[in-house]
Amino acid sequence: MEASSETPPGEIHVIVGPMFAGKTTTLLRRIQSESSNGRSVAIIKSNKDTRYGLDSIVTHDGVKLPCWPLANLSSFRQKLGPDSYDQLDVIGIDEAQFFGDLYDFCREAADHHGKTVIVAGLDGDYLRKSFGSILDIIPLADSVTKLTARCELCGKRAFFTLRKTQETETELIGGADVYMPVCRHHYVSGQVVIEAARVVLESQIRCGSYA
């Protein structure tokens, strides 16, 4: 299927980085700018993220906009309504790493429906492995912005997200109580500390089980 002559192809812009790097703030700033220029906009986020309420996106510094909380992106057109979707110019997607159908949705929306799609999310998980399918859409993207935070321990540029707790599941929703941005040095040293704590805890549990 090729883009129709009546609808020129759109664009895809990707914003990635660790937690607390300002990804959502950057996304909302872009969306607000597009709206101020008279374009019709909508924002989608994963319904897994309920930290600040289900039907809104809130940045860490309190900026808030309404959104569509969805389990998957493929349901968006139907939920919005075909006519409203056709009139839409810009689609923002926050916490994009949680959507398994991200690649297909972005390709279809930009290539065939003429939408500008702005995607924000984590490029890596707490183990520094690719998170979800957000890296898969980079070959589709018109632009990729890699943001950094400030290391919580030394103030240097932070590229990584360190999990403070010992949970091991990849998808663990949380804020500053669970995660912190760190530089490479403090990521490595932090992982050593967390692993040591895990070993001690497991040892205590084993000893307790035999008491």
TrEMBL record:
Substrate binds at residue 179. Keywords: ATP-binding, DNA synthesis, Kinase, Metal-binding, Nucleotide-binding, Transferase, Zinc. It comes from the Eukaryota. The active site is at 95 (proton acceptor). GO terms for biological process: DNA biosynthetic process; response to stress; thymidine metabolic process. It catalyses: thymidine + ATP = dTMP + ADP + H(+). Pathway: Pyrimidine metabolism; Purine metabolism. Transmembrane segments: none annotated. This is Thymidine kinase. It comes from Rhamnella rubrinervis.
